[in-house]
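Render this sequence as a predicted structure.
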Amino acid sequence: MFHYVSKFASLLLQPLNWIAILLVAGVILLFVRSQRLRSFGRTLCSVAALLLLLAGWHPLPEVLISALEDRYAPPTSDLSGFTGMVVLGGVFSAFDGRDRLQPALGCAGDRVVVPIPLMNQYLDMRLLFTGGAAYPAPPINAEATAARRYFQRMGTDMSRVLFESQSRDTYENATFSRRVPTVDVSKPWLLITSASHMPRALATFRKAGWNVTPYPVNYYSLYETSGWSYSLFRGVEAWQLVLREYIGLAAYRLAGRL
């Protein structure tokens, strides 16, 4: 139930949806008989336009994203003591190539790019990819299926790669991966996921009993941002990421998952 509620809530966490709702409601009220309601409709349209303009100013959400991304840094010392890497899904675009047998990397592609040289450098290190079908509908193949094709095409030694294909969110990544045969959560593992997602993922995995060390990848925030930077696309994208991660952290704490 938590998973379906979170997927529905994700629709409400998209700033453009808020703006669209305000705009549609405002336009509808412009055609009613009541002068008071028509006035309120004009106010809603004005608020929607103002929010749309403000959404393009992205330095503020980028500061909030940096606060998440800068909490942990990837280890720089020798990694030979680690049993393997746990790589979280959310990598392959569900509706762009997966059904055509061409795994399409999404915006979090570094999660499966970074592990390959580590596998080549540390020949005893294993990799566990965890990711099922996160979308409630329509039914699609598990993301782990796309991951398997990807690692095979990259020439990875598949005898060292494990897959978990039932999980639909971070909590299930942590709990379902424990059941994969030969996985020992007491041994040291690297946890690989996007830097902004690392605070929630790390706390969830440790709460589930994993002995994991963070290895953040896929940094979103810019190294240096001008206070006058403006981009409607990047601003909306940044706010959506901020809302997803901060509200996700709060929801996981309330649910006792952290």
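Summary. The beta strands are 84-88, 126-130, 161-164, 189-194, 212-217. The two ends are 18 Å apart (CA to CA).
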